[in-house]
Amino acid sequence: MLNFILRRLALIVPTVIGISLCAFFFVRVLPGDPILAMAGQHGVTPERYEILREQFGYNLPIWQQYLDYLGNVLQGNFGVSLSTKRPVLTEFMALFPATIELALVAMLFAVAVGIPAGIFAAVKRGSWFDQFTMGVALTGYSMPIFWWGLLLIIFFSGYLGWTPVSGRISLTFFLRPITGFMLVDTLLYGNWPAFVSALRHLILPAIVLGTIPLAVIARQTRSAMLEVLGEDYVRTARAKGLSPRRVVNVHALRNALIPVVTTIGLQVGLLLGGAILTETIFSWPGIGKWMIDSISKRDYVVVQSGLLLIALIVMAVNLLVDVLYAVINPRIRVK
Amino acid sequence: MKLMKSLFAATAIVALAAGAAQGKQLVYCSEASPAHFDPGPLTGGNDFDATSHAIYNRLVEFVPGGTEVAPALAESWEISEDGLEITFKLRPGVKWHTTPYFTPTRDFNAEDVVFSFERQWKEDSVWYNYLEGMTWDYFQGMDMPKYLKEIVAVDDLTVKFVLTEPNAPMIANLAMDFASIVSKEYADKLEADGNLAAFSTQPVGTGPFMFVDYQLDTVIRYQAFADYWDGKQPIDDLVFAITTDPSVRAQRLLAGECDIMPYPAPADIAQLQNDPNLTVMEQEGLNIGYMSYNVTEPPFDNVNVRKALTMAIDKAAIIEAVYQGAGQDAKNLIPPTMWSYNDAIPADEYNPEEAKRLLEEAGVTDLTTDLWAMPVSRPYNPNAQRVAELIQSDWAAVGVNANIVSYEWTEYRERGKQEDRKGPFQIGWTGDNGDPDNFFATLFSCSAIGVSNYSMWCNDEFEALIQEAKTTSDQEKRAELYTKAQEIFKAEEPAMTLAHSRVFMPMKKTVLNYKMSPLGNHSFKGVDIQE
Amino acid sequence: MSEIQATPAPVKAEFGAGLREFWHYYSVNRGAVIGLVVFTLLVLIAIFAPLIAPHSPDQQYRDALLVPPMWDAMGDPRFLLGTDPVGRDILSRLIHGARYSLFIGLFVVVGALFVGVILGVLAGYFGGWVDAMIMRVMDIILAFPSLLLALVLVAILGPGLFNAMVAIAIVLQPHFARLVRAAVMAEKNREYVTAAKLSGASHIRLMLITILPNCLGPLIVQATLSFSNAILDAAALGFLGMGAQPPTPEWGTMLASAREFILRAPWVVTFPGLAILITVLAINLIGDGMRDALDPKLKRS
User: Fold this and answer.
1) Is residue B505's pLDDT more than 90?
2) What's the order of all strands across the beta sheet hosting B158-163?
3) How far is B444 from A221, CA to CA, in rounded Å?
4) Cα B166 vs. chain centroid, distance in angstroms?
5) What residues contact C83, with CB distance under 8 A and at least 6 apart?
6) Is A177 left (phi over 0), alpha (psi -120 to 50) or beta?
7) What residues have CB less than 8 Å from C142, skipping those under 6 apart?
8) Mean pLDDT, chain A, as a whole number?
9) Does the distance separating the beta carbons of A33 and B410 come in below 8 Å?
10) Could you report how far apart the first and last alpha carbons of chain A are, in Å?
11) How many contacts does B have with C, using Cβ atoms within 8 A?
């Protein structure tokens, strides 16, 4: 097992270096000028421009800039945002919990609805339920989620007034973040109404972000389930006269869920991508919105370090999924 | 352990909040996060709303809802005969905020004033560069280093500004946000602690509201300052709920999640106006959206061609389709609310036939040109792309073929000011201080070519008038000079003046005494909530 | 979802019979047939857009700004689905927009397929350091959330439809490369390849003529999925202001530039979104049908 993990880690090192190179050079070739991007409507004088260039090291050869950057990153210094002058890592840590909370709840929603739907559809293959569920799933999978989010806001927040329009919690609650996860924090404070408020704020964004993973999971569960139900051992179990429910629960489900777990893990990148759109629509203060704002503000340092941090997280999660998969399914380890 | 500690601290805050919850809370859905909380180097209107107007004061301030300058931290001032010395008498007994991170030991005094300016000015000050890559944008932009000779603390409550030459707009400049007065004592303490950066994240001011907490990109909380020199505010808590999308802001207001919001999308205004719980205040904006012809580029070097092209544009249609009624046709560079506005100038005429004839007369046929459109929405032009689409179709009718070009916003301005830029260039301006000089000289003086004169237009007669107006202190005389300058501007048409946008401020009916500022800032001083 | 298990079946000897068999399995799936019909209609609409559209997509009716759809009391019979903020007919713009969306899908798939197949075949066939290099680059691309990477690439290249398509193709291409590599690695030691090798076939011949056709099935399915992903991603980029620029009647861009009217004139937001949904759904239905028809495992049951 350790061997397997080490082998995976060795593969990751060149990828991480590649990612840092990409993040660094992408930002270097972005059109526009970081120094001018910092200045306001009055611009900067040429003398001041030179001083700033030197201060930020933009006058150094590009490879040296890269090495300096890498050195700083290894010491945990991801640079300072051009617009807010705050350390990028501080901002990232402040906003990341919001994205994680949203993504986790979205995933929870997708799993809680998707897996049972997939199982039922498989068990009742060909029934109206199966057809209906799979139709809905495919529609969900085809959904432009930015549009879907807008429709939901119009209907539930605008027309019915059931859910709040935007924000993470009602403004009447003033809780200083402990973990940054609103649902956890409100419980830590023991403030029940605040918890309910946070939950109400989460529902719509989580549904929007969870729509595509839900569709993917439902479809994946169904096909995995169908495959397992066709296997000999399940047929044997059935032939032995076990109740259909027992066959599904004990024999089929456990094996069918292995590929589903992988699927869930693979959704992480997709979720972070979807978070960009969801957060934009709901004005959700997370890293997706932070990144897109920074791209349009030309906050070069944030774009560069943000890309790096996000890619590292995706990689870490993928590694975790691989390891988990290897734990569940020992066959994969010997390759 | 750390968790327990923060839990205890948090419980204390909850208790505090629970107590405060009985007070009056005003929620303002603001349009963007402030970069930080030191108004000196900041540039955005949203930055100033969250800093200078809530937390700080200036020596002199614009009266609420106007552009006239009134005493604030300075009780009075005197300008010497030669116009080279301005002496301010400071207000005694002004208290600095007492916050968990700083307890002041003395009142506001002359030292603070000198420090507030010298940190932006003297490069040897540790504060000149206390944040990585900072620039004192407004201090530089308003040419303060050129006009200031020295600032002297005569005694505790007297400060003298010595100038290098007379400068009529100086007092108005000192009412601007960058001139906010910060605490020297607090700065010294942070310097001793080696924690300079905290100056921008944990602000201490003399203003009506004290900073309580900021959650990045989410919410800023303030509390009324009990010892405010002008009396405690009627509301107890001020909350900025940061909501960047205008439609979402409007929906939050409709849903009651906030009490007041700025910059509604033009499309939402009608609905907001029709809501029985809301009022929508409105006002002329102190701004101009225009399109600069490059007067050095043929055929735009021919004044008749410029006039013909302007004449071919259906401005009324643009104002309806893009400004959605929230704009007003601009016939001059300055908005009608500003003194010296020349109302005798006739409005631009829309006449495609005549335009076509003029173009033919000038020998311009089959003209193909670039047409620049800003990539971002600005207060003076909510959608330059859409304006460009409309102009494109209008010009097509007179045989002019326009290609719409756009670049990233900083890139756009950089390319726009190149003297060999091709094609008319959409841009605009929002006034900084209500002085006409801030429009005429900033945008169309000869020295602004390559900076913010996007027409490359340098007209001797116009230049003489605006330079004279700058050094004259008699306002009536100045107004006369600017009136004349506007005639020249119209006769030369270096730019097509498109529109002044109207500014709307929707709020709940329960919000009382809010005054809209023509300068586009949002101050909640004196605002009350009906319960 | 976008990862398709590479389980290629050797190509059938007679192409015609294969096609007939494919259609036999494909046509069993009702959804897939509906998808195909809708898609065919969309293609026809796109081709004949100038003939079908009642108005020019750029014609501005200054007297008819934001007119609601015809069936609304305030509607105007000239404009079936209403007009946009500068008075252009929405139906006509949607019809012309079909051209953009289908072209985007086609361009991206062809681009991604071309590059992905080359890289995948090279990596799978040669193995060793070539494989390691190519696959690390693919890993790097896949480590970034695809929409984010596309956004940054477009920011670098400059907003615009063409650049958006290039960015999306780059982002989607690793899926093809991985798929082809896996298939090639599985195939290259089979008897028929060894036989071809022994009879003196060149590398290129082996890679392209002998091995590649055998991974065609999963590639086609992946291509269909990428087609719909490309349309969605392009629309998302357009929505974020980084894709096609107005006044191009691209659906995502139409949505973005009309977003401010969501409360006042919901139709300018509803119809482009619906058009995207229908198109993507049709393509996904086709993709599902193809996968089922090409997957030998499901054929058994």
Assistant:
1) yes
2) B74-79, B85-90, B158-163, B148-155
3) 67
4) 25
5) C61, C64, C65, C66, C67, C76, C89, C90
6) beta
7) A269, C174
8) 84
9) yes
10) 12
11) 55
**Residues forming beta bridges with residue B237, ordered by sequence position:** B25, B223
Which residue from C65, C86, C264 is facing B389, i.e. has the nearest CB?
C86
Interface of C with A in 204-263 (CB under 8 A): 228, 232, 235-236, 239-241, 252, 255, 259, 262-263
What is the per-residue pLDDT across B150-182, written as a single tens digit (0 to 9) for each?
999 999 999 999 999 888 889 989 999 999 999
Q: Which residue(s) pair with B283 in the sheet?
A: B503
Q: How many whole angstroms separate alpha carbon A138 and alpha carbon A215?
A: 6
Task: Report the mean per-residue pLDDT for chain C.
Answer: 84
Quick one: how far is CA B437 from the chain centroid? 15
Give, in degrees to the nearest 5, the angle at Cα B509 between B508 and B512: 100
Continuous segment of H or E residues that includes residue A105: helix A88-123
CA distances from B181 to B36, B119, B204, B229 (A): 16, 11, 10, 14
ω into residue C247 within 30 of 0, thus cis?
yes
Question: Which candidate from B10, B35, B244 shows the least CB-CB separation from A84?
Answer: B35
C95-118: burial string, b at 16+ Cβ within 10 Å, e else = bbbbbbbbebbebbbebbbebbbb
Six-digit token string for B201: 């994240």
The pLDDT tens digits for C151-186 are: 999 988 888 889 999 999 999 999 999 888 888 888
Subunits next to C (3 or more Cβ pairs <8 Å) are: A, B
Q: Note the ipTM here.
A: 0.86
Taking an 8 Å cut-off on Cβ atoms, the answer to whether C260 and B268 are in contact is yes
Each residue of B441-488: pLDDT tens digit? Answer: 989 999 888 878 999 999 999 999 999 998 887 889 999 999 999 999
pLDDT digits (tens, 9 = 90+) for B302-332: 999 999 999 999 999 999 888 887 888 999 9
Q: What is the pLDDT of residues C49-90, one digit of tens each?
A: 999 999 988 888 888 888 888 888 888 888 989 888 888 999
C1 touching chain A per CB within 8 A: yes
- The answer to whether the Cβ–Cβ distance between A151 and C31 falls below 8 Å is no
Burial of residue B136, with CB atoms counted within 10 A of its CB: 0-12 exposed, 13-18 middle, 19 or more buried: buried
More confident residue, C212 or B223: B223
Please name the amino acid found at residue B474.
D
Å between A122 CA and nearest CA of chain C = 13
A45–B213 C-beta distance less than 8 A: no
Residue A331: predicted pLDDT: 59
pLDDT digits (tens, 9 = 90+) for C28-44: 888 889 999 999 999 99
For residue A188, give Cα distances in angstroms to A104, A180, B2, B221. 19, 11, 14, 22
Token output for B466: 């605006």
The dihedral through the CA atoms of C241, C247, C250, C254 has a sign that is positive
d(CA C257, CA C272): 11
As beta bridge partners, residue B500 has: B328
The answer to whether residues B186 and B104 touch, using CB atoms and an 8 Å cutoff, is yes
User: Which residues on B lie below 8 Å from C265 (Cβ)?
Assistant: 267
Helix (H, G, I), strand (E, B) or coil at C152: helix
Helix (H, G, I), strand (E, B) or coil at B405: strand
pTM of the predicted protein model: 0.84
Which among C241, C266, C277 is the nearest to A143, CB-wise?
C277
Closest alpha carbon within chain C to B408? C158
Q: What is the distance in angstroms between the Cα of B259 and the nearest Cα belonging to chain A?
A: 11
Interval A183-227: pLDDT, tens: 888 998 888 999 999 999 999 999 999 999 999 999 989 988 888
- Which residues, at least 6 apart from A35, have a Cβ–Cβ distance to it below 8 Å? A44, A49, A52, A53, A56, A58, B133
Average of pLDDT values for C111-120?
92
The C-alpha atoms of residue B91 and residue B76 are separated, in whole angstroms, by 9
